[in-house]
Amino acid sequence: MAICYNDAIAGWSHNSNAGEVLEGNNCLVYKKWYIDLMLKWHRQDKVSDKEILRNNAAYDIQHNRNPYIDHPELAEYVWGDQMGNLWYEQGATSPAIGSPANGSVIDFGTTSVGMPLVKNVYVKGVLLTQDLTVTVTGEGFSCSTSTITAAQAVAGTTISITFSNDEVKTATGKLSIAGSEAATEVTLRATSSLVALHTPVATPATQLTATSFQANWNGVNGAESYTLYVNAKGAEPQPGEMLLDEDMSNGATTWTTEGKTYNESDCLRLGTAGGTGSVISPALNLASSNGKVTVKTVAKYYGNDKGAKMKVSVVNAGGDVLDSKTFEVAGSNAEYVAVLTGNASADNRIKIENVVNKKRILLKGIKVYAGEAGVNAPAHKSTETGDATKRVITGITATGYVVSDLTENGAFEYYVKAVRGNEETAASNVIEVKLRNIVQLQGDVNQDEKVDMNDVATLINKILDTENYADNLCDIDNDGKIDVSDVTALINLILNN
């Protein structure tokens, strides 16, 4: 069980009886008392002919084997008296390199562009008398040494492999350790990416008038532009607006599951060996987008289930399919975009399912938008669409934007998303705005219709935030600059009043 499910067992729930034996890791997996008991039974109950026949019969059907039937001594090397010692086929008398295993893969994971990743690789040989040569190939990979002596290999030694790349890419390479007596070759894999985009934080509006205001937010490292959404309170969703953002990385979902589904440690699995499964969203109102909806799904196929197909549909309350698109899913997480047409009403739901029995799908996350959204990267030039009650502004490169020509004295709310290429974040928090005619007081920097020390704090924060202080309310001394002299002028203004 521990070997077969080693990539998932650390995240298995401890809320059941499993918590009595599971340690919550992937090495050594179990609590000590349980390991001791298993080893006791293992040593007392030797592998039988019946177990060997069953192992062979299972292989004929499943094409995998129980290593502890083929090599009972492995239990001692993983959990018992031989932990830390090199294992090799019983009876072997010739030189060999046991670690790293020939044909294995070392996955470095993901790093930011220009930031190195280092992996320490344990090298262990047996019966070696000749030195080994270490060779690393592949763009971005390098090694700490080019030679390992026979004595070092037999004793066990560690070498360091470094990966660094100045481009966004997934790189592969080879680590070869070879001598005249033995050799091993390992595949290296690593990804360099841009820094992850974080969801922006919207901040209170400024420069309020009866028909306009300035929306503000904190900058996001790595963002190329921002999209601002403005809606009159209670208005229907604007085309392009995100309706649902469902994170399924914890194996949990607020969507309704049907058929065969399973909560994995980092995703939701659709389908089991016994059948297919699906998830269905809450009801969606697509009146504002004439029934058009965009569904972005991050998914991959389970294990070795190559050929798995995922169907993304918009259905009505009765489950009738109104429109759908089917994708053949890859073995690593990728985004699949479906633009579908449903009802121009509130009678819509999104259904995602695996359609091939025993070809399972792992769902990481789903985003649903009104209309046709985010299929192409927006240009880095602000484009404004909408009317006096709704507005969507794309391609904003600053961290503030003045929205004008709105309904006079109306109540609005806004939020923002960061964008990089075809990637966009979830929506920020929502800021509410009540437009009104304001008699502007000199020094009322925070626009609360009072001039006091709160305005001093606001002014200092604006000066420190060099991207957001370009506000004519801040130039208290009217010298065309916004600096510490304006703080002094504001304090004097307050004292004189």
Give structural attributes.
6-stranded antiparallel β-sheet; 7 helices; globular
Walk me through the structure.
By secondary structure, the protein is mostly beta strands. The protein has helices spanning 32-44, 49-62, 67-70, 74-78, 150-155, 453-464, 484-496, and strands at residues 96-99, 105-112, 117-126, 132-137, 141-143, 147-148, 157-163, 169-178, 183-193, 202-206, 213-217, 225-232, 242-247, 256-259, 261-263, 268-270, 277-280, 292-301, 309-315, 321-328, 334-341, 349-354, 361-370, 383-386, 390-396, 400-403, 411-420, 423-424, 431-434. Strands 12, 24, 25, 27, 28 and 29 form a 6-stranded antiparallel beta sheet that branches. Helix 6 (453-464) packs antiparallel against helix 7 (484-496). The radius of gyration is 31 Å and the shape is globular. The protein starts with 31 loop residues before the first helix and ends with a helix.
Compile the SSE list and pairings.
Blueprint: H1 32-44, H2 49-62, H3 67-70, H4 74-78, E1 96-99, E2 105-112, E3 117-126, E4 132-137, E5 141-143, E6 147-148, H5 150-155, E7 157-163, E8 169-178, E9 183-193, E10 202-206, E11 213-217, E12 225-232, E13 242-247, E14 256-259, E15 261-263, E16 268-270, E17 277-280, E18 292-301, E19 309-315, E20 321-328, E21 334-341, E22 349-354, E23 361-370, E24 383-386, E25 390-396, E26 400-403, E27 411-420, E28 423-424, E29 431-434, H6 453-464, H7 484-496
Parallel strand pairs: 2-9
Antiparallel strand pairs: 1-3, 3-7, 4-6, 4-8, 5-7, 8-9, 10-11, 11-26, 12-25, 12-27, 13-23, 14-17, 15-16, 16-23, 17-22, 18-21, 18-23, 19-20, 19-22, 24-25, 27-28, 27-29
Helix pairs in contact: 6-7
